[in-house]
């Protein structure tokens, strides 16, 4: 089995940098009330090798450090780290193997997004910000048991049907989000919980007015290609 010592200095330097990024981003999950206790995880794939950095399993957030982050290959085998990796490691690895443009994956159990997952419902696209960020509804993926790559397969299969969405609500489980890096995936997780909460509140008031897909496409194109700094 390969260890980090078998990789060159460029890879080891990126591992050090990504460990710091991933460790720090876990604190953002706490900041935005997306996780409790030890639930949830962030990972980021490397550019210099087929490796990823992920949270250790069952370790409280206040005890996480860059050195406690675990490095695995894209089959989920540990390459470096003193702790066992997250129980979702195989699913993160499956997503990276099957979605080459994805370099960040996040899983949370945030309250309102998970409530939609528990009822097996897509979050309907009734907000312009959903058109911007998700290009349509936030879709529900299938029920899958934890501990293998089965959840990852469900994420990939669902996003193939919703290619503009960076989020999937895995039924009876919770949201998984993807991005060009771990920070983008954390942003998508925060946005998922925001729209889940707002659309839940809207549903209490009455029927949600869904935005026509043609207008969603225009919103998404503007947000992805015009909005912000370039």
UniProtKB/TrEMBL annotation:
Organism in which the protein naturally occurs: Bifidobacterium santillanense
Reaction(s) this enzyme catalyzes, per UniProt: L-ribulose 5-phosphate = D-xylulose 5-phosphate
PANTHER family cross-referenced by the UniProt entry: FUCULOSE PHOSPHATE ALDOLASE (PTHR22789), L-RIBULOSE-5-PHOSPHATE 4-EPIMERASE SGBE (PTHR22789:SF8)
InterPro entries documented for this protein: Aldolase_class_II_sugar_metab, Aldolase_II/adducin_N, Aldolase_II/adducin_N_sf
Entry's family note: Belongs to the aldolase class II family. AraD/FucA subfamily.
Domain of life according to the entry: Bacteria
Chain ranges of the Class II aldolase/adducin N-terminal domain: 20-200
Top-tier EC class: isomerase
Pfam family, one: Aldolase_II
Known EC number: 5.1.3.4
Gene3D superfamilies the record matches: Class II aldolase/adducin N-terminal domain
Cofactor or coenzyme needed: Zn(2+)
Annotated protein name in UniProt: L-ribulose-5-phosphate 4-epimerase
Keywords for the protein's UniProt record, in alphabetical order: Metal-binding, Zinc
